[in-house]
Amino acid sequence: MAYGLRFIRSAWPVASALALLLLLWQFGAAALDIPTYILPRPAEIFVTAIAKWPLLGDALTVTLIEAVGGFLLGAAIGIVLAVLMILVPPLEALLMPIAVVINAVPSIAFVPLVLLWFGLGMESKIAIGALAVVLVVLLNLLAGLKRPEADAINLMRSFGAGRIGILWRLQLPAAMPGLVTGLRVGLARSTIAVIVAEMMGAYSGIGQVIYQATGQVDYLTVWAAVFVASLGSLALYGVLVAIDRKLVWWR
């Protein structure tokens, strides 16, 4: 009950702002008589989303599976690399320049290669999603693991703690806020990368629906697909925020 009240108190400003934006959009577009193909009314988008929900729902399921799969894979790789760099410091000097060079190129630029290597199925979308996540999780977690001061680390060593014990009891708790930040950014990057990859080549997914609807000049379906994708991303983000509150409960 208390958690539900806290959720309502934290969610109502966002819900109110979103409702106000939709109302301004609805009545502003009508007052200015903006053509539907330029800026449809939210009511039209909502009706289209309901009418085409069988198509959009199936596409959203595929996209969310790919985005979550890429997010989990990329986060796991980033976490493992960060921990290894802390335990074996020479690895940071060896691997970090490579990671920075790869990240200097937008992950979307690798989509044609990933499609060529893994095909048009889910595997290629999960791979491109993971690529978009790895470095942001790696950098945030690595910065958090380095946060404890040398005096605290030396104090634990004086009590006989080894490198693994210091990592588990001191460095990881200190790194949790940074890790959660990296995960939040990584989830958004994974979703964007997957949708763009679907637009460039896929059997299904929200990105493919957007691509096909654009080719058919069906702009209401395009907007409805974007609307549904936004709701799906918002739901994933809400789950991540709930996990954040459990993991970093002291903030």
TrEMBL record:
**GO CC list:** plasma membrane
**Any stretches that span the bilayer, and where are they?**
64-87, 94-120, 126-145, 192-211, 223-243
Q: Which residues form a coiled coil?
A: none
UniProt keywords, alphabetically: Cell membrane, Membrane, Transmembrane, Transmembrane helix, Transport
What sequence ranges are listed for the domain ABC transmembrane type-1? 60-240
Q: Which GO terms describe its biological process?
A: transmembrane transport
The membrane topology noted for this protein in its Swiss-Prot or TrEMBL record is: Multi-pass membrane protein
RNA-binding recorded as keyword: no
Q: Which residues form the signal peptide?
A: none
Gene3D superfamilies reported in the protein's UniProt record: MetI-like
> Pfam family of this protein, just one?
BPD_transp_1
Q: Which InterPro entries match?
A: MetI-like, MetI-like_sf
The record ties this protein, via PROSITE patterns, to:
ABC_TM1
In which compartments does the protein localize?
Cell membrane
Similarity section:
Belongs to the binding-protein-dependent transport system permease family.
Please give the name of this protein.
Answer: NitT/TauT family transport system permease protein
Species this chain originates from: Kaistia soli DSM 19436
